[in-house]
Amino acid sequence: MVACSVTEECPVAVPADLLWKVAFAGGDNSVLLKACAGMIDAMDVEGDGGAGTVSTMVINPSVSDTKVLKTRVLASDAAARTVRSEHVIEGGKMAAVLKSQVTEVTVAPAGEGACVAKFTVEYECADGAPLSPEEQAKLVHGYLGLVKKVEEYLVAHPGEVA
Predict the structure, then answer these.
(1) Is 137 strand, coil or helix?
(2) In this structure, how many other beta carbons lie within 10 angstroms of the beta carbon of residue 62?
């Protein structure tokens, strides 16, 4: 078995605290759902966003062949804006390929009104081989796509989140 990882950074045109609050802090997910309309059809969260919190996202079929993404927070540090979570995919090609998947996301300031979201996805494939570079990109870009949808929404609705 081979444990692999892929890391990618994503510049975001909103402040780090705002991106963290809407996308990663847990709690009220109403803005996240508005931002990801057409991408996430429904979301259920059990917990306060800290370790042990479990969220279930129903993915819109027009976006991916993945039907459901279940996430359990392993560790969360609001001061450092870092969260580590394990994920289980239901439905689609990746569900059949991945044995396990853990992400770590850090949101860091990058100048006035901007930040960088750094994603590291650690994964293990059922067949023990690493994903191809194209499959790795697809895996990490699923998470980056969520961040870009949140960014787009927050830029278009600057006063919605206090």
Answers:
(1) helix
(2) 8
Residues, the chain, total?
162
Q: Which residue type is seen at 34?
A: K
Q: Are 148 and 140 in contact (CB under 8 A)?
A: no
Return d(Cα 106, Cα 97) in angstroms, integer.
Answer: 26
Strand-pair partners of 109 = 115
User: N- to C-terminal Cα distance for the chain?
Assistant: 46
Hey, what are 103's tokens?
Answer: 């992400």
Give the SS3 label for residue 153: helix
What does pLDDT average to over the chain?
92
pLDDT in tens, 131-159: 999 999 989 988 999 999 999 999 999 88
- Taking the CA atoms of residue 105, residue 73, residue 4 and residue 62 in that order, the dihedral angle to the nearest 10 degrees is -80
| Residue type (1 letter), 110 | A
Q: Could you tell me what percent of the chain has a pLDDT over 70?
A: 99
Task: Give the residue from 108, 83, 147, 118 showing the smallest Cα distance to 5.
Answer: 118
